[in-house]
Amino acid sequence: MNINNKIYFVTGNPNKFKEANQILSKHHIQLEMINSKKKEIQNNDIAVIAKTSLKETQKRVSGPVIVEDSGLYISSLHGFPGPYSAYVYETLGCDGILNLLRDQVSRDAEFRSVIAYTENKKTSNIKIFLGITKGKISEKICGTQGFGFDPIFLPLQIDKTFGEIDLTEKNKYSHRAIAINNFASWYLINK
Amino acid sequence: MNINNKIYFVTGNPNKFKEANQILSKHHIQLEMINSKKKEIQNNDIAVIAKTSLKETQKRVSGPVIVEDSGLYISSLHGFPGPYSAYVYETLGCDGILNLLRDQVSRDAEFRSVIAYTENKKTSNIKIFLGITKGKISEKICGTQGFGFDPIFLPLQIDKTFGEIDLTEKNKYSHRAIAINNFASWYLINK
Lengths: 191, 191
Prior knowledge:
2 copies of one chain form a homodimer. The first copy, chain A, is α/β, with parallel strands linked by helices and 191 residues long.
């Protein structure tokens, strides 16, 4: 049992921490960022990547801990950039994705997020929580909020990209918010 | 010391085995394929990926062993697809790369290969051998030989893609052949 409700979030991305923290603080769950790029394996399944990262993290962190892995999956590109979204954003950027879709009819895409959690005792299991937001890739880059491919992702619910809405609104629709809320629901019952 | 000169090559790609085997057999080094997709981490440096894969492989294979990692690095795309070339080939294919380069002036690129070798005794070190072939990305897909991005890679030495030449000719110029030859030169002195 985790009496003081404090959970570590190992990530090198302060934006991810902000998003998760805004949601978990409403549930009175204290989140502390450990600023460290987690080790990741190459795999097409982000749940496998997150689980493996968490196992490696367990050696270094004492106490309850989460890691998150996420990706943008574009249907007409066979799921690309998927688990390698961060690398693809760094090299090709949003423009690269728009170029790749110039001749494609479908712009269907989804953002996926996986949270992996462990209480971090030797006997404890790893729990996995998934969040998916369906949407489309926009025709051009719109907005400067969020991070990564947010300015080209139009969630189905609204006519704006993730780059055009603030954190509070993004947390109503985003894949990461869904995964974090799924985690919080489970955690508050099981902690 | 490896008396019978037999080395295991752990790879899920028979093309890579064929290329390496053609070269090593000339040096009277016996290569045996262990058909297994090696575990890979996410890293921008293929030497780090190969080294980590070899360490994991050491647990499963008894005897001298090599693994290979390679990638296509395109200058104007900041090195993309680099270490994720296999994934990018599966999702975007050669057409995806040609699309990404439509508006780019430079088509400069290089293929890199890293061989990681260990004699596989607890005390043995891991040795790394690098091969680089400089070239350009062609304007269209040419040839059906080789594998992966071979049909769009023009090595500087000839006016044909790797897809238009046979294995023997590819082994005169290829990044993998250079890395394998570097390994063979070292191995024959140090085995």
